[in-house]
Fold this sequence. Notes:
Layout: H1 2-80, H2 86-91, H3 96-172, H4 176-207, E1 230-232, E2 237-239, E3 242-243, E4 247-250, E5 256-258, E6 263-271, E7 275-283, E8 286-296, E9 303-304, E10 309-313, E11 323-330, E12 333-335
Helix pairs in contact: 1-3
Amino acid sequence: MRARQQVLENNRASAQELENVLKASELEIAKVAKALSSTRQSLKNIEQEQAKLEEEQEGLKTAIRKQQSLLSSQLKSAFMAGHYDYAKMLFYQDDARTFERVITYYQYVAKARQKEIESFRGNVARLEEVNAELSEKALSLAALKDEQEGQRAVLITRQDDRKATLKKINKTIASENQRIASLQADEKALKDAIEAARIAAERAAREAEVSMDGLAKLKGKLAAPVKGRIRNLFGSRRQGQVSWKGIVIDGAEGDPVNSIAPGKVLYADWLRGFGLVAIVDHGEGYMSVYGHNQALLKQAGDDVRQGERIALVGRSGGQEYPNLYFEIRHKGKALNPSSWLD
């Protein structure tokens, strides 16, 4: 009996040690994934800027060609009419009215030509600037693509490390009783985090000058935080007597996780069994919970808009496939999210 107890103690210690390794591994993955997401956004921004510059470049080239053609025609006309130059035409005017018209005409022509020349020079100068900017963007793109490849390689290595750790964890909690105990411990950790967040939200609401409206008026109208198939339903059995307090939505790794409504982030950290978790307070006792994330894009205390990206879909918390664990709670009580989503 004592020997068996010792084995169980050793297993628990080993599982805890591996849990810490998993946490470190998933936090490292989150760091790299967040950097990779930022690099992707920078690439997208530069590509958009590049497209605008290329469009401007084509417009300038077209304008310059037209201006060159027009100025060439004007110069040719001026050359062909050289023997009727400005001075001669003024000299041969035989009445004051015609004389005045000729002066006005030549002043207009001279001014228009000068304006055209200035516009031409401006376009040529801007084209040189655009060409230089495009060269700079091309260099930035090349550097960012190299950086992206490096980040991807690091991410793959970290994910392989995590996979090996998960394999070891699964060996240490092989029996059903151990798994149920582990799930119950996970649930308690999440419940404690939600309760702490709820107390903090109530305190913040008392101190806040502007109150949040909650979710009551949005029931059945909320957009899902991610696009994907619901794999596990609210209330369905997980293992033993443990049931799901939220839903699990399949997603592609790195896809955006969006806040279902305006609110304030109360919790953004790693939690055993649920990995990287964000808890958002929506006021009036309503909260939404987002777990299994690859990376968190918001910190505790950040305000968020409805539909704003707050995390990236992942498999943290020991998940085999990328998904989002999602809950809605009111005054600490878990509600069926499917009843609230559009």
